[in-house]
Amino acid sequence: MEYYLVILLVYLGTDLLAAWGLNLEFGVAGIANLAFIVTIAAGAYTYVICTLSSPAAGGGFQQYIGGFSLPFPLAVVAGTLMGGVVGVLIGITGLKRLRQDYQAVAMLVVSLMAATIVSADTSFLNGNAGVAILPQFAPLSDQDPEIQHWGYVAIVAVACIVGFLVLRRFTDGPIGRTLRAMRDDESAAAAVGKDVVALRLMVQAVGGAFGGLSGALLVAFIGGWSPGAWAYVETLALLTAVIVGGMGSNRGVSVGTFLIAILILQGVQFLPQISFRIGLREDLGWILLGTLTIVFIWVRPQGVLPERRPKYGRSP
Amino acid sequence: MELLIEAIGFGIASGAVIALGAVGFSVQFGMSNILNITYGSLMTLGAYLGLFLIDRGASAWAALGLASLVVGAVSVVFHRALLAPLVRRGTRAFALVIVTVSAGVVLQYVIVAFAGPDAKSYGEQSGQTFRLLGFILTASQVTIILLTLVLMLGLHLLLTRTTLGRAMRATASNRILAQSCGINTDLVSDVAWLLSGLLCGAAGVALAITTVSFDFTLGPVFLIPMIAAAVLGGIGQPYGAMIGGLVVGVAGEVASAYTNPEYSVVVAFAILIAMLLVRPRGLFGAAWATRRLAA
């Protein structure tokens, strides 16, 4: 039971980081990045290949590129950076001045495609079987289980606090106002001299880095990563958190993440076994998430805790 | 050389299926201006309905007809009950995409909840093998190519020779003007969603007939070559989508014959990204409804 609480806290922390990153891109800057999960995957895979030793030394039971035997902090930094790089690469598909929905579909295709390529090519990241690392809790592996568990929760908590402080530099203040202006009217923002292309790429880099950090911390905890862990629907879970919580509002998105990642996705696990089939409760979770997104876009598009509208000058 | 010709033959067969799907997708986009990602899951629905019917003794071709009728009906209801009200409420285009992605996920997992996550198969459907001009094709592939040709010809005649088709083209190019000419645009758009659903269901069953096995991700995976074909031909243009389907199908099969089979999807993806970056209006420029693509 206590271990379950540890799992929940780590999931909540990594989901928060990811949802904040997606909110920066989607809620604040208006980039409907349906490939966000790919940045998480990039962070996770990078962490794995940075911490593992070379494939041959590991007995050759899994194939992957790299294998640098780096310590935990360096591997997490590498994962974060890789998330940013992949975020920019995804962002390039959205640079062409196309309709927003068209860009969203292009990014959805990027997500489907990345998973297809990684699954198909086993020499790259061990294909469909995925890569595994041991031990779990890498930075604390020689400690008691108790210290390992809560120590890891503390590491994730520190990452969240640092992440939140960094995030506020981008969502609030001058940068945040510029990004919101770009979201609300891109042409107007460009007309007053804002470099829209540079802003978009910056947002994609920062948001991607949040995804990468989230992925690296998550994989260090769960100990393995495969294409099944980052299907395109996983982006939808984060997107639901952003939409339900309130696009553009950090507080709202944090609440939304708690509601979605913990109450719903974990809550369905406690439903009584309604059928002989094992995966049915997870299916229900997805059905619930999709329905919730649609209901919120229909009934309350601003979310539970909407973005505060800024007041400029004196109000009458 | 023989390998190349064989690959082209296979490419025409898979291009026919892609064209079915892409044309349906284009008809719908041209009419409603909504990028409907649920389309992929509707295709999966078609494949599973086909399976349901075949398991109960229907022939594959009867199943194709029935399943596409059902998917057509579902498509109309989906538009009427969910998308059209959202459009009337002024929901923004990217929010609509998220709605269609979500609806697709819901539909996909409803299918899984009923049918289970394992790979399914229609059983042996290929029948006799034909050799024609160096192409080696199975009877079912030939049938699907012929079926696609007939459906495309039918759609062409509908769009150009009938009052309904003219009304559809008018509504696609300017809904308000069409309305003020006395066209019942709601009815016309229902017909477009019905047609697109029919083609979607037919493509789903045809895809399931020609593949060895499939599972609930059939639709979303197939979205890539389909959207690539639609974009290649200029999204929203049915004729472009026909040619786009053929190009994507042949290019994919040729690439997979010479490299890794999985790379047929990669080729489709490369075509899609290249088109998006270089010529988002499609090869044939703007004709039907593409000029609304720019931001």
Describe the structure.
The complex is a heterodimer of chains A (316) and B (295). Chain A is mainly α and 316 residues long. Chain A has one domain (2-231). Chain A has 12 helices and 2 strands. In chain A, helix 1 packs parallel to helix 6 and helix 2 (36-51) runs antiparallel to helix 3. The model of chain A has no long low-confidence stretch (mean pLDDT 86). Chain B has 295 residues and is mostly helical. Chain B has a single domain (2-293), classed as Orthogonal Bundle (ABC transporter involved in vitamin B12 uptake, BtuC), CATH 1.10.3470. Helices cover 74% and strands 3% of the residues of chain B. Chain B has helices at 2-32, 38-55, 60-88, 93-115, 139-161, 163-173, 175-180, 185-210, 218-232, 238-258, 263-278, and strands at 129-132, 135-138. In chain B, strand 1 and strand 2 form a beta hairpin. In chain B, helix 5 (139-161) packs antiparallel against helix 8 (185-210) and helix 9 (218-232) crosses helix 10. The N and C termini of chain B lie far apart (45 Å). Mean pLDDT of chain B is 85; it is low at 287-295.
Describe the structure in brief:
The complex is a heterodimer of chains A (316) and B (295). Chain A has 316 residues and is mainly α. Chain A contains 12 helices and 2 strands; from the N terminus they run αααααβααααβααα.
